[in-house]
Each structure stands twice: as structure tokens, then as C-alpha cells.
Amino acid sequence: MNNLNEVEQKIAESLLQIKAIKLQPKNPFTWASGWKSPIYCDNRITLSHPAIRTYIRQKLSQLIQEEFGTVEMISGVATAGIPQGVLVAQDLGLPFTYVRSSAKDHGRQNLIEGEVVSGQRVVVVEDLISTGKSSLQAVEALRAAGCNVVGLVSIFAYGFDAAVKNFADAKCPFFSLCNYEALIKVAVGNSYVLESEVALLEQWRRDPANWIGE
Fold it and tell me: How far apart are CA 125 and CA 88, in angstroms?
């Protein structure tokens, strides 16, 4: 695949193979937001495939070490980022916490589950980045608790301009093992979609909120 690194290609091939990602440009999905989308991504399916799960864990751990150096805690974003984060924390021998989408309405009313130490260098683990809104809510919760969030990693990112802007505004670097552009190249090369459907797929990524398909 032209211009793809080994990790991007392998992740894209794996996600397509196990149907963690489905592409239907001519029969689009409807997201909870109401957006029409030619792609549906559920990276939790990777947890049922040990070889793929292991590869993702290893590459997320490697990415964290290469991009962020010394890290003192891993934190997952509820819910899909929790198992991925646990695997990475175990791999790196680091403490783990996770951030709820909202605080519990009983008990200690925790927003962050696990032990947080002020000043800790933390990397957040997410499964998927769309606009980045929910991921950055977790980042802000950790920062409000005194953590030094140095960045975020994910398995896959759609590559929306809104996400790039949101993470830049939050001063939070983020990196993904694979992205939408790489996925489409692999999908075409392996006949998951037709070359004639690529234009539709690219139109969606440029303006997902207003995309209606054919």
C-alpha cells in the first residue's frame, strides 16, 4: 500500500477482516448524533481476537514510549477505552485509572475510578477518535484532579479537522495507530470497497455533518 507504514496497514487489515470496521458507502449507517456515515467502527470486537488484541496492545505501548517517554499512569476513557488501557498499563507495568462519562450518582460520586496522584505524568488511552469531544472531557477531568496529562493515544481516528482543532485548543497531543485515509487505501486494495466508491468516502470525511451519500 503506497505511503502506509506497517502498523497502519496491519491494523486496517485486521479491523476490516474481523468486521470491527464496516464500510457501506451506498447503504450508510446512522450514528447516535443523527449523522449519516459510510463507516461503522466497533473496536471492542478486537478484544475477542487474541492475536489482534496483543498486536494492538504492543503497538499502543510502543507508541506511548516513543512519543511521551517516561509515563507514570495510564487512564482509559469509559467504556471502550477501559480494556485497551488496562492491557497497556499491564504491559508497561503502570498504575491504571479510568474516567467515567459522568460522575456516579451514589457512593463517593467518583468521576475518575482508581488512585490519582497529583502531578503524575498520564497518557490517556481511547479506542476511537471522532471529534475528540468525549476524549477531551476525560483529559480535562484528569487535569482538574491534578494530573499532568501529556497526551492521548487511540487505535483509530477518523481524521476530522474538528478533532485536530479540538486537541490543539486543549494543548493535548494525540496519536493513533491507524486512520481513515489509511483504512480506505487498504479497503480498496483488498476489495472491501470499489475504487468508484472512494469519492463518496472522501466526501464524508471532509464534511461528515452534512454528508447524505448518493
Answer: 8
Which tens digits make up the pLDDT trace of 15-26?
Answer: 999 999 999 999
Rg (CA), the chain: 17
Q: 178 is written with which cell numbers?
A: 491507524
pTM of the model: 0.94
List, as one string, the DSSP characters of 36-47.
EESEEE-GGGGG
State which amino acid sits at residue 81.
Answer: G
Instruction: Name the DSSP class of 74.
Output: E
**For residue 177, what are the β-bridge partners?**
none
Closest C-alpha among 155, 133, 150 to residue 21: 155
104 confidence band (pLDDT: 50, 70, 90): low
Write down the pLDDT at residue 1. 41
